[in-house]
Every structure is written in structure tokens, then in C-alpha cells.
Amino acid sequence: MENYIIEMKNITKEFPGIIANDNITLNLKRGEVHALLGENGAGKSTLMSVLFGLYQAEKGEILKDGKVVKINNPNDANALGIGMVHQHFKLVEIFTVLENIILGVEPNKMGFLQKAEARKKVVELSEKYGLKVNPDAVIEKISVGMQQRVEILKMLYRENEILIFDEPTAVLTPQEIEELLQIMRGFAEEGKSILFITHKLNEIKAVADRCTVLRKGKYIGTVDVKDTTKEELSKMMVGRDISFSVEKTPAEPKDVVLSVRNVTVPSKTHKNNAVKNVSFDVRAGEIVCLAGIDGNGQTEFVSALTGLEKMSGGTISLLGKDLTKSSIRERSVAGISHIPEDRHKHGLVLDYSLEENLILQRYWQPEFQKNGFLKFDAMRKYAETLISRFDVRSGQGPVTQVRSMSGGNQQKAIIAREIDKKHELLVAVQPTRGLDVGAIEYIHKQLVETRDKGKGVLLVSLELDEVMDVSDRILVMYEGEIVGELDPKNTTVEELGLYMSGAKRDTVKETSYAG
Length: 515
Known about the structure:
Layout: E1 4-15, E2 18-29, E3 33-38, H1 44-51, E4 59-64, E5 67-69, H2 74-79, E6 82-85, H3 97-102, E7 108-109, E8 112-113, H4 115-128, H5 144-157, E9 162-166, H6 174-189, E10 193-198, H7 201-207, E11 210-215, E12 218-224, H8 230-238, E13 256-266, E14 273-283, E15 286-291, H9 298-306, E16 313-318, E17 321-322, H10 328-334, E18 336-339, H11 343-347, H12 354-358, E19 369-370, E20 373-374, H13 376-389, H14 407-420, E21 425-429, H15 437-452, E22 456-461, H16 464-470, E23 473-478, E24 481-486, H17 493-500
Parallel strand pairs: 3-10, 3-11, 6-9, 9-10, 15-22, 15-23, 18-21, 21-22
Antiparallel strand pairs: 1-2, 1-4, 4-5, 7-8, 11-12, 13-14, 13-16, 16-17, 19-20, 23-24
Helix pairs in contact: 14-15
GO molecular function: ATP binding; ATP hydrolysis activity
Protein name: Nucleoside ABC transporter ATP-binding protein
GO cellular component, one term: plasma membrane
């Protein structure tokens, strides 16, 4: 008999129109890192939400240390030593780091909050596990990587021994990912047990002992990672062979689509400018990638380009038309499609239906409205077409509330809307964040197809493999400036890394603007 700390037996969880978990059994050993792998919408997060008490299963049982337990809510889970870092963090943005960590388990004496005692414990934990944070920093003012550290410290503060990580690396830089994987290994060596939801096969190979694969809500199998290849794992996940290389012909750039000259964007967090005097061109028929470590001005630049933020200097033109002072809608109508970095803040209205979200950029056009009234039949037909074309999975099709969909399928919905909309330039920021290998393969094909149809593509990515494989030209951004222009065919990941870290700089020539 194996020494399992957690056993989930024959778990079935249903939502309207979909069986999210169909008779799934998962066993977690004490002191192991156990990966949970599956496509977007395979039921991974749902299964972990059942274990954490956010959902109740219709069938099945959960055992802790061989005894059946009932987990009605997250407080029950915490009492059993189970903690969870969610894909979309559960933090109060206007609270401090310390306030978020102790929320719900506030130390008090006679009804008075004992913050000093809590602070001491948080500082000790952060130092012990290499999770340096400022306890007094406000959540909305710290980076995503720091916010994730806060989520991890919440679990450690509650002395959880079973740690669930739901897509923990989806929003991290490569350096932060490596740090997190080391922290997870350290937890396992200490005797904690980890359930690790991810789409990234490299991470599973790097850190996991065993891997359980789900597909469309069903259990496919559990394997020892050391005895399994990435190709075998991906085939278990999607049911077919996956190509890990991006197939594309050499680019044939034509006329300039986007022209950016001397763009400067002020920073919201310090006195210096976030973007400093940036100039470059994107031509029709090429994919230009803006690469860099997170926080070096890419987000602010894209916000200025798409109209979300004001520039303090410079000009932006599309096909020769000056858009510098244009509104977001004017830029959209002029031909800019935008896959945003944060799908919840800028990509979707979470309480709208899928079909409503798919026409957000076009609802005023004659195709979808007449005399101010929406044409619901046209809307439904259009949504069904995109859902089929882009394989967007949801419980109730076009009428599904977007909030209830998996993160990956939310991303697919945005990509479907932006690629299908008439455009001359596609601005794709982290387009494959949180997607499985099958979906990544498909999205990369869509980017290449967009290029081959004579459109310009500006890709912003933190994934070095994606930067190298998808782009035709790489512009490296460091501290708000373009410090290098590289040809992916004639450079290495190591050289790219040196530019991204600021250790190497080009004198970017005037001629390079046009490619």
C-alpha cells in the first residue's frame, strides 16, 4: 500500500452543459511534486478547486492520510493543511502584502489585531524560502511575480503541507520561473507535497516526479516523469502528435504598415520615463518581436500604441495615417488588432456572454446592429463560426458567461476576435500565455498566416523559444530603449539573453527602422 497523503477517488464534477471531471482518480504521495497536465478546459483547475473546497463533487470521495474527509470550503481545506495559489491571484489590490497574507487568519488579542507578531513571522518565512517581499507594499503597485510570492507566503503562513499551484508560471519571466521551480523543489525536499498544474512540458521534466494527464474531463493516465518523453506527454494530452517547431517560409516584407518615431511614455511608478525615444517600423508580411525581460517598458509601449495610455512625445502612424492623438476605437477601425497582456483587465468583459465578447470591437457595425438594436441571430451565427474555427471550448457555447471559461479558452476567444477582425497590424502581447502545446501550435500558425496574408505582426513575448521560433526580426527593449536588433536565424538564445539583461547593446541604425 502506497503512502498517499491525498487520494481523490472517482471524482465527478458537472456544470451546465459539461462534465468537467468525469470519474477521475488522483493520488498524491508525501514529499512529491505531482504535475497535472491537460489541454485548456481539460478539467485540471476544476479538479483542484474540488480539492480546495471551492466546488463540491457530485460523485467520488477525498481521503487525507487514508481517512475520508469532507471539504466544504477553503477554510476546511486550510484546516487540513491544503493551500492553493490560483491562476488568477486572489489578492485585495488596495491592501498591503502583510494584510493580504494574514487575511482570514488575523492574529489578535482580545479583539485587537497583532500586526507586529504577524510581520515577524512573514519576514522569517520570506527569508527562509527566498521569497523576499516588502510587507508594507500595496499589492496594486508590485509586479506580478511579487504578487505570486505573496500567494505562496499565504500558504506558508497557514502552515499548509499540501500546496496546489495552478498555472504558476503563466505570468512570470524566465528568471522568475527558474526561481519558482527551485522553491518548489525545496518544498518537496522538506516533505511538503505539491500539485502543479501546467501546460509547459519543460517545467514538468525539470521539477515533477510524476504526472497525471487529463483530456476533455477524463483521466488518461499517470506516468513517472523520468521515464517519459515530452513527445509522449504531449500525445497523451492532446491525442495526436505535436510539432514543437514553427513551420514558416522566409519573410518577404513589403510596405511599411506601422511607423513609430521617438515615442516616449512616462512611468506611473517613478519619475523616469518608462519608454524613451523609441523608433522602429513594422512592414507588411513580417513578424517583428519586441523582446525583453518583463518590466522594461514593453507594457507601457503597447498601451501607448493601442491608445490605452498617453504618450509624452513622438508619433505613431499606420499606413501613413497619423494615429498619435486617435482614440482606441479610431485605432481599432484604422486597422490595429490587439491581443492584450491582461485578458481580464483589457481583453474581456467577464460577466458578458461569449458571443457578446466576440463582437465587442464591432457591435456598432451594420452586420450586428440596425437602428441601435443588436441583431442577435447574426451575433449567434458569427460566434458559432469563430467557436468552431478556433476551437473555443465552453459549457454552453455562445451563451456561456466568459467568467466561467478556462483561462486558455478565454485567451482563444480574444485571439479569434482580433484575428478575424479586419486589420493591417496585429499587436500580439503574450498570445500563448496559459495555453497548452496544441493551442500554442495553432496560435503560432495563425500568426504566420496573418503575416503571409500581407499583414504586419508586432509580437511581444517573454518566452525565449517563441521569440526565436516565430519572429522574423527581434527588437530588444531594455530600460525603455531599443538596445539591439537581431536576426533570429543568426543569433543564439544566449546572445539574446545578454541584450535583454542590458549586458550588450547595439547602436541601432537609422536604416534598421525599415527592416
